[in-house]
Amino acid sequence: MVAIPEQFVPRFYKKGVRVKEVASVFFKHGFFWVAEALEVTRFFPRSLREKVTATDDYQLPLAVRMRRVIEELGPTYVKAGQILSSRPDMIPQDIIQELSKLQDEVPPFPFEKVQDIIENDLLHPMDQVFRSFARVPIASASIGQVHEAVLLDGREVVVKVQRPDMEQMVNIDTSIMMDLARQAEKRFEWARLYNIMERVEEFTRTMHQELDYTHEGQNADRLAANFEDDETICIPMIYWEYTTKRVLTMEYIHGIKIKEKERLLAAGYDMTYLTEVIANAFIKMILIDGIFHGDPHFGNIFVMENQVVALIDFGMVGIVDPIMKRNMAKYFISIVQRDPEGLVEVLEEIAEIDPSTDKKALVREAGRLLQEYADITIGQIKIEEIVVELFNIGLKYRIKLPGEFTLMDKTLVTLEGLGRHLDPTFDLIAAAEPAAHMLLRREMDPRNMGKDFIKTAIDIRDLVIAMPKRLDRISRGLEEGQLKVKIELENYVDTIKGTVDRAGQSVNRLSLAIILAALLISASTILPRYDDVTVFGKSLPDILIITLLIMAVVWIAAIFRSGRFGNK
Fold first, then answer.
1. Is 295 a catalytic residue?
2. Residue 406: its pLDDT value, please?
3. Given the residues 295, 313, 409, 427, the one annotated as active site
4. Residue 436 has pLDDT above 50, yes or no
Protein backbone atom coordinates (compact mmCIF):
# COMPACT_ATOMS: atom_id res chain seq x y z
CA MET A 1 0.00 0.00 0.00
CA VAL A 2 1.36 3.43 -0.96
CA ALA A 3 1.28 6.03 1.84
CA ILE A 4 -0.33 9.39 1.03
CA PRO A 5 2.20 12.25 1.36
CA GLU A 6 1.60 14.30 4.50
CA GLN A 7 0.88 17.52 2.60
CA PHE A 8 -2.02 15.89 0.75
CA VAL A 9 -3.87 14.66 3.85
CA PRO A 10 -6.94 16.93 4.46
CA ARG A 11 -6.93 18.98 7.65
CA PHE A 12 -10.39 17.76 8.68
CA TYR A 13 -9.11 14.18 8.58
CA LYS A 14 -6.07 15.08 10.70
CA LYS A 15 -8.32 16.83 13.20
CA GLY A 16 -10.61 13.81 13.36
CA VAL A 17 -7.68 11.53 14.16
CA ARG A 18 -6.40 13.97 16.80
CA VAL A 19 -9.88 14.32 18.37
CA LYS A 20 -10.04 10.57 18.94
CA GLU A 21 -6.50 10.61 20.36
CA VAL A 22 -7.29 13.49 22.75
CA ALA A 23 -10.53 11.87 23.87
CA SER A 24 -8.72 8.56 24.48
CA VAL A 25 -6.13 10.18 26.77
CA PHE A 26 -8.77 12.06 28.77
CA PHE A 27 -10.96 8.95 28.97
CA LYS A 28 -8.06 6.79 30.16
CA HIS A 29 -7.56 9.12 33.13
CA GLY A 30 -11.22 9.27 34.09
CA PHE A 31 -12.37 12.49 32.37
CA PHE A 32 -15.29 10.78 30.64
CA TRP A 33 -17.20 13.95 29.79
CA VAL A 34 -14.54 14.87 27.20
CA ALA A 35 -15.56 11.99 24.95
CA GLU A 36 -19.16 13.19 25.15
CA ALA A 37 -18.16 16.80 24.50
CA LEU A 38 -16.15 15.80 21.42
CA GLU A 39 -19.00 13.54 20.28
CA VAL A 40 -16.89 10.38 20.05
CA THR A 41 -18.61 8.27 22.71
CA ARG A 42 -19.12 5.50 20.16
CA PHE A 43 -15.45 4.66 20.55
CA PHE A 44 -15.76 4.33 24.32
CA PRO A 45 -18.41 1.79 25.38
CA ARG A 46 -19.65 1.56 28.96
CA SER A 47 -17.62 -1.60 29.54
CA LEU A 48 -14.44 0.39 28.85
CA ARG A 49 -15.50 3.05 31.36
CA GLU A 50 -15.95 0.36 34.01
CA LYS A 51 -12.42 -0.90 33.34
CA VAL A 52 -11.03 2.62 33.82
CA THR A 53 -12.84 3.17 37.12
CA ALA A 54 -11.43 -0.12 38.39
CA THR A 55 -7.78 0.90 37.86
CA ASP A 56 -5.47 2.25 40.54
CA ASP A 57 -4.78 5.34 38.42
CA TYR A 58 -8.44 6.35 38.66
CA GLN A 59 -8.03 6.63 42.44
CA LEU A 60 -5.25 9.20 42.11
CA PRO A 61 -5.99 12.84 43.01
CA LEU A 62 -7.57 14.99 40.30
CA ALA A 63 -4.47 17.19 40.05
CA VAL A 64 -2.18 14.23 39.34
CA ARG A 65 -4.52 12.88 36.66
CA MET A 66 -4.66 16.33 35.02
CA ARG A 67 -0.87 16.53 34.85
CA ARG A 68 -0.61 13.07 33.32
CA VAL A 69 -3.20 13.98 30.68
CA ILE A 70 -1.26 17.10 29.72
CA GLU A 71 2.06 15.26 29.54
CA GLU A 72 0.61 12.59 27.25
CA LEU A 73 -1.09 15.08 24.91
CA GLY A 74 2.15 16.81 24.00
CA PRO A 75 3.60 20.29 23.31
CA THR A 76 0.47 22.44 22.92
CA TYR A 77 -1.12 21.08 26.08
CA VAL A 78 2.17 21.25 28.00
CA LYS A 79 2.43 24.94 27.09
CA ALA A 80 -1.14 25.53 28.29
CA GLY A 81 -0.40 23.67 31.52
CA GLN A 82 2.70 25.75 32.17
CA ILE A 83 0.72 28.96 31.74
CA LEU A 84 -1.97 27.68 34.11
CA SER A 85 0.69 26.70 36.67
CA SER A 86 1.50 30.38 37.12
CA ARG A 87 -2.13 31.41 37.62
CA PRO A 88 -2.98 31.04 41.33
CA ASP A 89 -5.82 33.48 40.73
CA MET A 90 -7.55 30.83 38.61
CA ILE A 91 -6.25 27.41 39.64
CA PRO A 92 -6.41 25.69 43.07
CA GLN A 93 -3.06 25.31 44.80
CA ASP A 94 -2.97 21.51 44.63
CA ILE A 95 -3.34 21.59 40.85
CA ILE A 96 -0.72 24.36 40.56
CA GLN A 97 1.77 22.22 42.46
CA GLU A 98 1.24 19.37 40.01
CA LEU A 99 1.32 21.54 36.90
CA SER A 100 4.55 23.15 38.08
CA LYS A 101 6.16 19.73 37.57
CA LEU A 102 5.53 19.96 33.83
CA GLN A 103 8.82 20.13 31.99
CA ASP A 104 9.29 21.97 28.72
CA GLU A 105 12.29 19.76 27.99
CA VAL A 106 11.34 17.29 25.28
CA PRO A 107 13.52 15.05 23.08
CA PRO A 108 15.22 17.06 20.32
CA PHE A 109 14.35 16.47 16.69
CA PRO A 110 17.11 15.30 14.33
CA PHE A 111 19.82 17.67 13.18
CA GLU A 112 19.01 16.83 9.55
CA LYS A 113 15.59 18.46 9.96
CA VAL A 114 17.22 21.45 11.68
CA GLN A 115 19.49 21.86 8.68
CA ASP A 116 16.60 21.52 6.21
CA ILE A 117 14.55 24.22 7.97
CA ILE A 118 17.50 26.65 8.22
CA GLU A 119 18.55 26.21 4.60
CA ASN A 120 14.98 26.43 3.29
CA ASP A 121 14.26 29.58 5.30
CA LEU A 122 17.61 31.37 4.93
CA LEU A 123 17.97 30.32 1.26
CA HIS A 124 21.65 29.43 1.73
CA PRO A 125 23.60 26.33 2.69
CA MET A 126 24.49 26.37 6.39
CA ASP A 127 28.23 26.65 5.75
CA GLN A 128 27.60 29.90 3.86
CA VAL A 129 25.93 31.42 6.94
CA PHE A 130 27.68 29.88 9.95
CA ARG A 131 31.36 29.25 10.64
CA SER A 132 30.24 26.59 13.12
CA PHE A 133 26.92 25.18 14.26
CA ALA A 134 26.48 22.81 17.21
CA ARG A 135 24.68 19.63 16.18
CA VAL A 136 23.42 19.00 19.73
CA PRO A 137 20.99 21.65 21.04
CA ILE A 138 21.60 23.40 24.37
CA ALA A 139 17.84 23.37 25.00
CA SER A 140 14.92 21.51 23.47
CA ALA A 141 11.45 22.81 24.27
CA SER A 142 7.91 22.11 23.11
CA ILE A 143 7.91 24.59 20.23
CA GLY A 144 11.54 24.59 19.14
CA GLN A 145 15.12 23.94 20.13
CA VAL A 146 18.17 26.17 20.56
CA HIS A 147 21.65 25.64 19.11
CA GLU A 148 24.89 27.49 19.69
CA ALA A 149 26.55 28.82 16.56
CA VAL A 150 29.18 31.25 15.26
CA LEU A 151 28.54 33.49 12.25
CA LEU A 152 31.07 33.78 9.45
CA ASP A 153 32.32 37.09 10.91
CA GLY A 154 32.98 35.48 14.30
CA ARG A 155 29.97 36.73 16.25
CA GLU A 156 28.64 34.20 18.77
CA VAL A 157 24.91 33.56 18.45
CA VAL A 158 22.15 31.21 19.49
CA VAL A 159 19.75 29.94 16.85
CA LYS A 160 16.21 28.91 17.74
CA VAL A 161 14.66 26.52 15.23
CA GLN A 162 10.98 25.62 15.24
CA ARG A 163 9.84 22.00 15.26
CA PRO A 164 8.63 20.64 11.91
CA ASP A 165 4.86 20.95 11.32
CA MET A 166 4.45 22.73 14.66
CA GLU A 167 2.02 25.34 13.34
CA GLN A 168 -0.33 22.70 11.93
CA MET A 169 -0.28 20.79 15.23
CA VAL A 170 -1.06 23.94 17.24
CA ASN A 171 -3.93 24.88 14.89
CA ILE A 172 -5.56 21.47 15.33
CA ASP A 173 -4.98 21.31 19.10
CA THR A 174 -6.28 24.81 19.83
CA SER A 175 -9.34 24.11 17.66
CA ILE A 176 -10.06 21.03 19.80
CA MET A 177 -9.45 23.05 22.97
CA MET A 178 -12.05 25.58 21.82
CA ASP A 179 -14.54 22.77 21.16
CA LEU A 180 -13.96 21.49 24.70
CA ALA A 181 -14.22 24.99 26.19
CA ARG A 182 -17.52 25.61 24.39
CA GLN A 183 -18.99 22.38 25.73
CA ALA A 184 -17.58 23.00 29.21
CA GLU A 185 -19.31 26.40 29.41
CA LYS A 186 -22.59 24.75 28.44
CA ARG A 187 -22.23 22.03 31.08
CA PHE A 188 -20.41 23.55 34.06
CA GLU A 189 -20.99 26.71 36.08
CA TRP A 190 -17.29 26.93 36.96
CA ALA A 191 -16.39 27.02 33.25
CA ARG A 192 -18.68 30.01 32.69
CA LEU A 193 -17.32 31.82 35.73
CA TYR A 194 -13.74 31.27 34.59
CA ASN A 195 -14.56 32.41 31.01
CA ILE A 196 -12.93 29.27 29.63
CA MET A 197 -13.63 30.13 25.98
CA GLU A 198 -12.02 33.54 26.38
CA ARG A 199 -9.01 31.95 28.06
CA VAL A 200 -8.61 29.50 25.16
CA GLU A 201 -8.84 32.40 22.69
CA GLU A 202 -6.08 34.22 24.60
CA PHE A 203 -3.96 31.09 24.64
CA THR A 204 -4.49 30.56 20.90
CA ARG A 205 -3.34 34.13 20.18
CA THR A 206 -0.33 33.63 22.41
CA MET A 207 0.62 30.37 20.70
CA HIS A 208 0.35 31.89 17.22
CA GLN A 209 2.55 34.77 18.31
CA GLU A 210 5.13 32.36 19.73
CA LEU A 211 5.08 30.38 16.48
CA ASP A 212 6.15 33.47 14.55
CA TYR A 213 9.76 34.12 15.50
CA THR A 214 9.74 37.46 13.66
CA HIS A 215 7.13 38.59 16.17
CA GLU A 216 9.47 37.59 19.00
CA GLY A 217 12.31 39.47 17.35
CA GLN A 218 10.19 42.61 17.04
CA ASN A 219 9.27 42.35 20.71
CA ALA A 220 12.96 42.12 21.61
CA ASP A 221 13.77 45.21 19.53
CA ARG A 222 10.97 47.23 21.18
CA LEU A 223 12.13 46.31 24.66
CA ALA A 224 15.76 46.96 23.73
CA ALA A 225 14.83 50.48 22.58
CA ASN A 226 13.05 51.14 25.88
CA PHE A 227 16.17 50.10 27.85
CA GLU A 228 18.69 51.70 25.50
CA ASP A 229 19.92 54.12 28.18
CA ASP A 230 19.75 51.64 31.07
CA GLU A 231 23.10 49.97 31.73
CA THR A 232 21.61 47.53 34.26
CA ILE A 233 19.44 45.68 31.69
CA CYS A 234 20.55 43.81 28.58
CA ILE A 235 18.23 42.71 25.77
CA PRO A 236 20.04 40.47 23.22
CA MET A 237 20.44 41.80 19.70
CA ILE A 238 18.40 40.14 16.94
CA TYR A 239 20.27 39.38 13.69
CA TRP A 240 17.48 39.98 11.20
CA GLU A 241 19.40 38.85 8.14
CA TYR A 242 19.38 35.36 9.70
CA THR A 243 15.86 35.42 11.13
CA THR A 244 12.58 34.14 9.65
CA LYS A 245 9.23 32.91 10.92
CA ARG A 246 10.80 29.57 11.88
CA VAL A 247 14.42 30.58 12.58
CA LEU A 248 15.51 33.16 15.15
CA THR A 249 19.17 34.20 15.42
CA MET A 250 20.21 36.40 18.31
CA GLU A 251 23.20 37.50 20.36
CA TYR A 252 24.67 34.88 22.69
CA ILE A 253 24.25 35.77 26.36
CA HIS A 254 27.08 34.75 28.70
CA GLY A 255 25.74 34.65 32.24
CA ILE A 256 24.30 32.71 35.17
CA LYS A 257 20.62 31.83 35.30
CA ILE A 258 18.79 33.67 38.05
CA LYS A 259 17.57 30.38 39.53
CA GLU A 260 21.18 29.37 40.32
CA LYS A 261 21.36 31.39 43.52
CA GLU A 262 24.34 29.50 44.91
CA ARG A 263 26.42 30.27 41.81
CA LEU A 264 25.38 33.91 41.97
CA LEU A 265 26.43 34.15 45.61
CA ALA A 266 29.72 32.38 44.87
CA ALA A 267 30.39 34.94 42.14
CA GLY A 268 29.93 37.72 44.70
CA TYR A 269 26.70 39.14 43.32
CA ASP A 270 24.40 41.21 45.57
CA MET A 271 20.98 39.52 45.78
CA THR A 272 19.16 42.62 47.03
CA TYR A 273 20.62 44.73 44.24
CA LEU A 274 19.70 42.17 41.57
CA THR A 275 16.16 41.97 42.92
CA GLU A 276 15.79 45.75 42.73
CA VAL A 277 17.11 45.82 39.16
CA ILE A 278 14.68 43.14 38.01
CA ALA A 279 11.70 44.65 39.87
CA ASN A 280 12.40 48.18 38.61
CA ALA A 281 12.72 46.88 35.06
CA PHE A 282 9.32 45.17 35.13
CA ILE A 283 7.60 48.07 36.89
CA LYS A 284 9.00 50.37 34.21
CA MET A 285 7.78 48.05 31.46
CA ILE A 286 4.25 47.85 32.87
CA LEU A 287 3.61 51.34 34.24
CA ILE A 288 5.82 53.50 32.01
CA ASP A 289 6.61 51.79 28.70
CA GLY A 290 3.32 49.96 28.17
CA ILE A 291 4.95 46.74 26.90
CA PHE A 292 6.29 44.05 29.22
CA HIS A 293 7.91 40.63 29.18
CA GLY A 294 5.01 38.26 29.84
CA ASP A 295 6.98 35.21 30.98
CA PRO A 296 9.62 36.20 33.57
CA HIS A 297 10.33 32.70 34.87
CA PHE A 298 13.69 31.57 36.24
CA GLY A 299 14.97 30.27 32.91
CA ASN A 300 14.47 33.57 31.08
CA ILE A 301 16.64 35.81 33.24
CA PHE A 302 20.45 35.77 33.39
CA VAL A 303 23.04 37.75 35.34
CA MET A 304 26.04 38.87 33.33
CA GLU A 305 29.32 40.51 34.37
CA ASN A 306 29.03 43.68 36.47
CA GLN A 307 25.60 42.46 37.68
CA VAL A 308 23.90 43.33 34.42
CA VAL A 309 20.55 41.51 34.12
CA ALA A 310 19.74 39.97 30.74
CA LEU A 311 16.21 39.02 29.64
CA ILE A 312 15.55 36.45 26.92
CA ASP A 313 12.57 34.74 25.25
CA PHE A 314 10.12 37.40 24.10
CA GLY A 315 7.47 35.18 22.55
CA MET A 316 4.94 36.31 25.15
CA VAL A 317 4.62 40.03 25.86
CA GLY A 318 1.79 42.12 27.25
CA ILE A 319 0.64 45.46 25.85
CA VAL A 320 -0.74 48.05 28.27
CA ASP A 321 -2.69 50.98 26.86
CA PRO A 322 -2.62 54.37 28.67
CA ILE A 323 -5.96 53.75 30.40
CA MET A 324 -4.82 50.37 31.72
CA LYS A 325 -1.50 51.88 32.90
CA ARG A 326 -3.40 54.52 34.84
CA ASN A 327 -5.64 51.90 36.40
CA MET A 328 -2.71 49.67 37.31
CA ALA A 329 -1.19 52.64 39.12
CA LYS A 330 -4.47 53.14 41.02
CA TYR A 331 -4.52 49.39 41.71
CA PHE A 332 -1.18 49.51 43.54
CA ILE A 333 -1.99 52.74 45.37
CA SER A 334 -5.39 51.41 46.52
CA ILE A 335 -3.71 48.35 48.02
CA VAL A 336 -0.99 50.39 49.73
CA GLN A 337 -3.52 52.87 51.15
CA ARG A 338 -6.08 50.16 52.02
CA ASP A 339 -8.69 52.01 49.95
CA PRO A 340 -11.61 49.67 49.06
CA GLU A 341 -13.54 52.34 47.17
CA GLY A 342 -10.49 53.04 45.03
CA LEU A 343 -10.00 49.33 44.39
CA VAL A 344 -13.61 48.90 43.28
CA GLU A 345 -13.32 51.97 41.05
CA VAL A 346 -10.39 50.27 39.30
CA LEU A 347 -12.47 47.12 38.82
CA GLU A 348 -15.33 49.18 37.39
CA GLU A 349 -12.92 50.80 34.93
CA ILE A 350 -11.20 47.69 33.62
CA ALA A 351 -13.68 44.84 34.13
CA GLU A 352 -17.10 43.76 32.98
CA ILE A 353 -19.33 43.74 36.07
CA ASP A 354 -22.76 42.14 36.07
CA PRO A 355 -25.43 44.93 36.15
CA SER A 356 -27.18 43.18 39.05
CA THR A 357 -24.06 43.30 41.22
CA ASP A 358 -24.54 44.99 44.60
CA LYS A 359 -21.80 47.64 44.41
CA LYS A 360 -22.03 48.51 48.10
CA ALA A 361 -21.58 44.87 49.03
CA LEU A 362 -18.63 44.68 46.64
CA VAL A 363 -16.99 47.66 48.35
CA ARG A 364 -17.57 46.03 51.77
CA GLU A 365 -15.99 42.82 50.47
CA ALA A 366 -12.96 44.72 49.17
CA GLY A 367 -12.76 46.53 52.50
CA ARG A 368 -12.79 43.21 54.35
CA LEU A 369 -9.96 41.96 52.14
CA LEU A 370 -7.80 45.03 52.71
CA GLN A 371 -8.63 45.08 56.44
CA GLU A 372 -6.97 41.67 56.75
CA TYR A 373 -3.69 43.43 56.02
CA ALA A 374 -4.36 46.46 58.22
CA ASP A 375 -2.12 45.36 61.09
CA ILE A 376 0.84 44.14 59.06
CA THR A 377 3.48 46.04 57.18
CA ILE A 378 3.37 46.37 53.41
CA GLY A 379 6.47 44.20 53.14
CA GLN A 380 4.59 41.25 54.61
CA ILE A 381 1.80 41.43 52.02
CA LYS A 382 2.06 38.94 49.18
CA ILE A 383 0.54 40.12 45.95
CA GLU A 384 -0.17 36.48 45.11
CA GLU A 385 -2.55 36.26 48.08
CA ILE A 386 -4.28 39.50 47.10
CA VAL A 387 -4.65 38.37 43.49
CA VAL A 388 -6.23 35.08 44.57
CA GLU A 389 -8.60 36.85 46.99
CA LEU A 390 -9.58 39.41 44.36
CA PHE A 391 -10.28 36.69 41.85
CA ASN A 392 -12.46 34.88 44.38
CA ILE A 393 -14.36 38.12 44.93
CA GLY A 394 -14.65 38.45 41.15
CA LEU A 395 -16.23 35.00 40.94
CA LYS A 396 -18.65 35.81 43.73
CA TYR A 397 -19.79 39.09 42.13
CA ARG A 398 -19.52 37.89 38.51
CA ILE A 399 -16.70 40.21 37.48
CA LYS A 400 -14.95 39.38 34.20
CA LEU A 401 -11.40 40.69 34.02
CA PRO A 402 -9.77 41.42 30.63
CA GLY A 403 -6.95 39.25 29.35
CA GLU A 404 -4.26 41.94 29.58
CA PHE A 405 -5.01 42.45 33.28
CA THR A 406 -4.80 38.73 34.06
CA LEU A 407 -1.50 38.51 32.13
CA MET A 408 -0.17 41.37 34.25
CA ASP A 409 -1.35 39.61 37.40
CA LYS A 410 0.38 36.42 36.28
CA THR A 411 3.57 38.36 35.51
CA LEU A 412 3.51 40.16 38.86
CA VAL A 413 2.91 36.94 40.80
CA THR A 414 5.80 35.25 38.97
CA LEU A 415 7.99 38.31 39.53
CA GLU A 416 7.20 38.35 43.25
CA GLY A 417 8.14 34.67 43.59
CA LEU A 418 11.38 35.26 41.68
CA GLY A 419 12.24 38.30 43.79
CA ARG A 420 11.65 36.51 47.08
CA HIS A 421 13.78 33.61 45.85
CA LEU A 422 16.71 36.03 45.64
CA ASP A 423 15.77 38.24 48.59
CA PRO A 424 13.19 36.99 51.13
CA THR A 425 12.49 40.61 52.17
CA PHE A 426 11.53 41.65 48.63
CA ASP A 427 8.40 43.84 48.59
CA LEU A 428 6.86 44.17 45.13
CA ILE A 429 3.96 46.41 46.17
CA ALA A 430 6.23 48.93 47.90
CA ALA A 431 8.62 48.81 44.94
CA ALA A 432 5.80 49.68 42.54
CA GLU A 433 4.27 52.49 44.62
CA PRO A 434 6.71 55.31 43.66
CA ALA A 435 6.30 54.57 39.95
CA ALA A 436 2.51 54.46 40.36
CA HIS A 437 2.46 57.87 42.07
CA MET A 438 4.80 59.30 39.42
CA LEU A 439 2.53 58.04 36.63
CA LEU A 440 -0.57 59.59 38.21
CA ARG A 441 1.23 62.91 38.83
CA ARG A 442 2.28 62.97 35.19
CA GLU A 443 -1.29 62.21 34.10
CA MET A 444 -2.57 65.15 36.19
CA ASP A 445 0.00 67.62 34.83
CA PRO A 446 -2.08 70.28 32.99
CA ARG A 447 0.49 70.37 30.20
CA ASN A 448 -0.31 66.70 29.48
CA MET A 449 -4.07 67.21 29.44
CA GLY A 450 -4.31 68.96 26.09
CA LYS A 451 -5.22 65.86 24.07
CA ASP A 452 -7.83 64.71 26.60
CA PHE A 453 -9.51 68.10 26.64
CA ILE A 454 -9.44 68.34 22.86
CA LYS A 455 -11.18 64.96 22.68
CA THR A 456 -13.74 66.11 25.27
CA ALA A 457 -14.33 69.33 23.36
CA ILE A 458 -14.91 67.36 20.13
CA ASP A 459 -17.41 65.10 21.94
CA ILE A 460 -19.23 68.19 23.28
CA ARG A 461 -19.23 69.76 19.80
CA ASP A 462 -20.72 66.58 18.30
CA LEU A 463 -23.37 66.55 21.03
CA VAL A 464 -24.30 70.17 20.37
CA ILE A 465 -24.46 69.57 16.60
CA ALA A 466 -26.63 66.49 17.03
CA MET A 467 -28.96 68.09 19.62
CA PRO A 468 -31.29 69.99 17.16
CA LYS A 469 -31.96 66.79 15.17
CA ARG A 470 -32.68 64.83 18.33
CA LEU A 471 -35.01 67.53 19.63
CA ASP A 472 -36.75 67.64 16.22
CA ARG A 473 -37.32 63.86 16.36
CA ILE A 474 -38.72 64.16 19.88
CA SER A 475 -41.09 67.00 18.91
CA ARG A 476 -42.33 65.12 15.83
CA GLY A 477 -42.88 62.08 18.01
CA LEU A 478 -44.98 64.18 20.37
CA GLU A 479 -47.03 65.66 17.51
CA GLU A 480 -47.68 62.24 15.97
CA GLY A 481 -48.37 60.60 19.32
CA GLN A 482 -45.62 58.04 18.79
CA LEU A 483 -43.28 59.02 21.63
CA LYS A 484 -42.98 56.38 24.32
CA VAL A 485 -41.71 57.36 27.78
CA LYS A 486 -41.07 54.84 30.53
CA ILE A 487 -41.29 56.36 34.04
CA GLU A 488 -40.94 54.50 37.32
CA LEU A 489 -42.04 56.67 40.25
CA GLU A 490 -42.28 56.03 43.96
CA ASN A 491 -43.00 59.62 44.85
CA TYR A 492 -44.23 61.60 41.85
CA VAL A 493 -43.72 65.16 43.13
CA ASP A 494 -40.29 64.54 44.68
CA THR A 495 -39.10 62.73 41.57
CA ILE A 496 -40.19 65.51 39.19
CA LYS A 497 -38.61 68.14 41.44
CA GLY A 498 -35.40 66.13 41.61
CA THR A 499 -35.38 65.75 37.84
CA VAL A 500 -35.74 69.50 37.31
CA ASP A 501 -32.99 70.22 39.84
CA ARG A 502 -30.67 67.71 38.23
CA ALA A 503 -31.38 69.17 34.79
CA GLY A 504 -30.38 72.61 36.04
CA GLN A 505 -27.26 71.20 37.64
CA SER A 506 -26.37 69.35 34.42
CA VAL A 507 -26.67 72.58 32.40
CA ASN A 508 -24.30 74.32 34.83
CA ARG A 509 -21.86 71.42 34.66
CA LEU A 510 -22.00 71.29 30.87
CA SER A 511 -21.43 75.05 30.60
CA LEU A 512 -18.49 74.84 32.96
CA ALA A 513 -17.02 71.88 31.05
CA ILE A 514 -17.32 73.72 27.71
CA ILE A 515 -15.68 76.89 29.06
CA LEU A 516 -12.89 75.02 30.85
CA ALA A 517 -12.27 72.85 27.81
CA ALA A 518 -12.09 75.93 25.56
CA LEU A 519 -9.67 77.70 27.92
CA LEU A 520 -7.40 74.68 28.29
CA ILE A 521 -7.44 73.92 24.56
CA SER A 522 -6.49 77.50 23.85
CA ALA A 523 -3.77 77.34 26.47
CA SER A 524 -2.34 74.06 25.20
CA THR A 525 -2.30 75.46 21.64
CA ILE A 526 -0.95 78.96 22.28
CA LEU A 527 1.33 78.69 25.31
CA PRO A 528 4.05 76.49 23.74
CA ARG A 529 4.84 79.44 21.41
CA TYR A 530 5.90 81.47 24.47
CA ASP A 531 7.83 78.74 26.26
CA ASP A 532 11.03 80.85 26.23
CA VAL A 533 9.37 83.94 27.77
CA THR A 534 10.07 84.34 31.50
CA VAL A 535 8.53 86.61 34.13
CA PHE A 536 10.22 86.99 37.54
CA GLY A 537 12.34 83.94 36.71
CA LYS A 538 9.34 81.73 35.83
CA SER A 539 8.25 80.69 32.34
CA LEU A 540 5.16 82.51 31.05
CA PRO A 541 3.28 79.25 30.25
CA ASP A 542 3.73 78.00 33.84
CA ILE A 543 2.46 81.30 35.30
CA LEU A 544 -0.57 81.40 33.00
CA ILE A 545 -1.46 77.75 33.62
CA ILE A 546 -1.30 78.24 37.42
CA THR A 547 -3.41 81.42 37.11
CA LEU A 548 -5.96 79.60 34.97
CA LEU A 549 -6.23 76.74 37.45
CA ILE A 550 -6.66 79.14 40.39
CA MET A 551 -9.44 80.97 38.51
CA ALA A 552 -11.13 77.65 37.72
CA VAL A 553 -10.98 76.51 41.37
CA VAL A 554 -12.38 79.84 42.62
CA TRP A 555 -15.16 79.73 40.02
CA ILE A 556 -16.11 76.13 40.87
CA ALA A 557 -16.10 76.92 44.59
CA ALA A 558 -18.43 79.88 44.00
CA ILE A 559 -20.85 77.71 42.03
CA PHE A 560 -20.86 75.02 44.71
CA ARG A 561 -21.54 77.62 47.42
CA SER A 562 -24.48 78.91 45.40
CA GLY A 563 -25.94 75.39 45.26
CA ARG A 564 -26.23 75.46 41.47
CA PHE A 565 -24.09 72.33 41.17
CA GLY A 566 -26.24 70.36 43.58
CA ASN A 567 -25.26 68.88 46.92
CA LYS A 568 -24.66 65.15 47.44
1. yes
2. 74
3. 295
4. yes
